[in-house]
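Ticket #4471: structure export looks truncated?
Reporter: QA, pipeline team
Priority: medium

Steps to reproduce: submit the single chain below to the structure queue and open the exported record.
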Amino acid sequence: MLLSSLCFALMSAIAKSMTTRFGSVELVFFRSAVGLPFLLTSLYRTPAIQTGGKLYFIIMRGLLGAFTLYCLFFTLEHLDLSLTNTYGQAFPLFIAIFSFFIFPNERLTTRQVLYLIIGFLGILLIFQPEAQGQLLHHATGIIYAMGTALGYLAIKEAQKYYDSRWVVVSFMAAGFIASSVSLALGTWGDYPNSFFTGKWVTPQGAEWAWALIMGLLALGVQYFTTQALLNEKTSIAGAVGNSAVLFSILIEIIIGHGFPSFLVCIGMGLVFWGSYQVSKR
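Actual output as written to the record:
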């Protein structure tokens, strides 16, 4: 999970720098397209050994993954790197809530409810549309956290029946297909860059290399996260995954964007603490 978090922070930083030239939809395309050939080659050379029979988990993972990618890159396009990743790391709060409604035997203890409130208080502290970004951009960040939570639940269930590589393929293939359609609509249908559509911009020179590196880092994120969830509890994987925000803050300091405001730092701390305490169960 530490390797996954480092890959994610670096991938997000590259994507953030590329938003000056490329729309969020095209970044989703680059992220998805690069990793697919590697995974499909791996499946061809070493066929999957799996029980199968639960295709809806794979489909759910793919759809959730594609939608979450749209939310991630749209939020990255409009908010700071560390702020976007903090929203993403709030997913344990939503896992607790969704589990309560999806699984009949799940119950929230009084302490968990308290830590849920603390975590959401942290979200409110960093949810400052008047300070940075519009209400829509912050709302997309929260939806990104909700999609990540549902995606984690889908991964845990899908891996009981399918090879982990197929779980990742469903995620990347859905993102590739959805972004291809969105780019076609934006480029030939003359729709402006938005959450769902984008105009194709041909990379120049080193931009091809950065797109490739971003895609390979994304593949690393999926591989390391899937391995972590396969061999460790979701709560522990989620807690260690919070390090992505620390890596993001460090990257922002190195590239000269400075440190987040004091209030935002308090909010980040509350999100981390609440998420960790909720997920410990």
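Status: closed, not a bug. The export was complete when the record was re-opened. Leaving a note from the reviewer for reference: Residues 2-279 form one domain.
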